[in-house]
Specification:
Chain lengths: 148, 217
């Protein structure tokens, strides 16, 4: 743990709360998009939700039980989520050709409901959220291993 | 209540409260039902596009007669046209997804031939209303149905069948498809209201977009 700066250690100590907040925010915003603005989720967005929503319960229960080993269950989900949202972002940015998209009917995965500054799409926000969760939980895990 | 539970509750209140507050502040301020970018009108609505109504709001549909989602949208588009009586003009452009819908091109040709015979909208409506009858038929079976519908509308069914079989209206349809591709239409049905792509879905999304367009007037 010597390699971590005091700031990173502070983040690590509160990483579980930050990760839970990120998951909660992501879920709330995604529901706002679909249920208030009526932006129908595409197939990849649904897969992303499947990976994000359970984190609220897993992390929340873990915190309430004052355990930290739940990190081993959360990080794999968050890594898969990060890879999935990266793929989805590349699809929307046109880096991966549209023909590869798994959508056949319904809302295509290339539909951009949000496109700020030419790159900030909904999948990219998901990518940032999963990346944030992964970083926080990695630092939290390091901190817990240190004090254990 | 444990310290952890208090912290989680506080976060929950702040996050949910903040988002509800944001929603209240933003609600009604911006139109989230349509894309912020207005597309090139010359590409979206060149001369000669089928239109119905005389309203100031332009509602453009890129549709595929064999697409189930277009078939589902048809009743509410019709209802919207009736509810907004005189306020909306409906335009139709062909976007047959031929890679997944084998009868879509024949249906589009049938509708275009019906247009030459003066019954485009009648045929358009008929194709959507009877979609379930012909989507799963082999090509010849579907074309025979189109001829039957045309006869029922009082136009020459044989001419419609020939057009569907020989794809004699392919140029018109390809032009629609090319324009759709240029506009980055990526699904059917895709709607535009006054040149802005409707991104909110379903009947409510379409109504919101039309309401927002009417408010801007």
């Amino acid at each position: 743990m010597k390699s971590l700066t005091p700031v990173l250690r502070a983040v690590g100590r509160h990483g579980h709360y930050i990760a839970w907040t990120i998951a909660l925010l992501a879920a709330a915003i995604s529901l706002y998009f679909s249920d208030v603005l009526h932006w129908a989720p595409c197939v990849l967005c649904w897969y992303t939700r499947i990976l994000m929503y359970p984190l609220i319960a897993i992390i929340g229960v873990g915190i309430l039980r004052r355990e930290w080993q739940w990190v081993y269950y959360v990080i794999p989900l968050a890594i898969i989520g990060q890879l999935l949202t990266l793929y989805h972002s590349l699809l929307q940015w046109g880096v991966i050709p549209e023909a590869v998209a798994p959508c056949v009917s319904g809302v295509p995965c290339t539909t951009k409901y949000l496109d700020l500054f030419g790159f900030m799409t909904i999948p990219f926000l998901g990518f940032v959220a999963f990346a944030g969760i992964n970083v926080c939980l990695y630092l939290y895990w390091k901190e817990m291993k240190r004090v254990a | 209540m444990s310290r952890e539970a208090k912290i989680l509750t506080a976060i929950l209140v702040v996050v949910v409260g903040g988002l509800v507050g944001l929603f209240v502040v933003m609600n009604g301020g911006t139109d989230s039902s349509t894309s912020s970018d207005k597309v090139d009108t010359k590409v979206l609505l060149p001369e000669g596009v089928h239109n119905e109504g005389t309203g100031s709001v332009q509602l453009v549909e890129f549709g595929d007669y064999q697409c189930p989602a277009c078939g589902n949208a048809y009743p509410y588009v019709k209802k919207i046209m009736s509810d907004y009586n005189g306020k909306v003009t409906l335009y139709f452009r062909n976007f047959p997804l031929t890679n997944v819908h084998p009868n879509a091109m024949a249906a589009a040709n049938a509708a275009e031939e019906a247009s030459d015979l003066g019954k485009f909208w009648e045929m358009n409506n008929k194709l959507y209303e009877t979609q379930k009858e012909w989507v799963d038929l082999p090509g010849d079976g579907a074309i025979a149905k189109f001829a039957e519908y045309a006869n029922g509308l009082g136009i020459d069914g044989q001419k419609v069948a020939d057009a569907a079989k020989n794809q004699s209206k392919k140029d018109v349809i390809t032009k629609d498809q090319n324009d759709g591709n240029e506009l980055q239409v990526d699904a059917t049905p895709t709607f535009y209201v006054n040149g802005r792509k409707v991104i909110a879905t379903g009947e409510k999304g379409l109504r919101d977009a039309i309401d927002a367009a009417l408010k801007k007037k």
